[in-house]
Design goal:
Layout: H1 11-18, E1 22-26, H2 31-40, E2 44-48, H3 50-53, H4 63-74, E3 81-82, H5 87-104
Parallel strand pairs: 1-2
Antiparallel strand pairs: 2-3
């Protein structure tokens, strides 16, 4: 695991320079965007549900410890990964979520 602090705007260029074979990330709001971006550049992307990453966090929650936990979880043969959503699938999920929130206020 490479320990390198990278800001969001430099992430893609940094990853392209490193050329990893597999990119693992925890599922979150931006994970599908980044997964599609990296997959489009030819990388193999693995997305892990947060509930499966949490047992591997060794101490307080911060970006560095989360990254180590994701690496540890991704290396497990029995790990279950989340499928990457297309832009359309993600757009539909957002619309459904917005509709659900609108009904909560009525």
């Amino acid at each position: 695991m490479l320990q390198l602090k990278v800001c969001r705007k430099d992430l893609l260029l940094t990853v392209l320079k490193l050329m990893p074979s597999v990119i693992a990330m925890e599922a979150c709001g931006g994970a599908n965007y980044w997964a599609r971006t990296f997959a489009g550049k030819g990388f193999r992307v693995k997305i892990i549900s947060p509930q499966f990453v949490k047992p591997f966090v060794k101490s307080q929650k911060n970006d560095r410890n989360d990254a180590e936990a994701i690496v540890e979880a991704a290396q497990r043969k029995s790990m279950r990964f989340v499928s990457m959503n297309t832009f359309l699938q993600q757009e539909i999920a957002v619309e459904l979520s917005e509709k659900s929130c609108a009904f909560d206020f009525m």
